[in-house]
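Sample entry (62 residues):
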Amino acid sequence: MKYLSLILGILAIANVIYTFFGDHLTTAIFGFEVSIWTYRLFWGILAVGCIFDYIRKSKKTV
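Predicted structure, serialized as tokens:
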């Protein structure tokens, strides 16, 4: 299950990178319209949290 955090982190990073290739000014999070920078911040925090969780779990098992 520790790899789930890594996979979610990678997908979140990919989602942030993907937003730079489109012509988006706003997008939706949980049905609420937010600016693209808020969307990127949300996914960036999620990515950092997931990757940090993976690193913490991998150090715990070593």
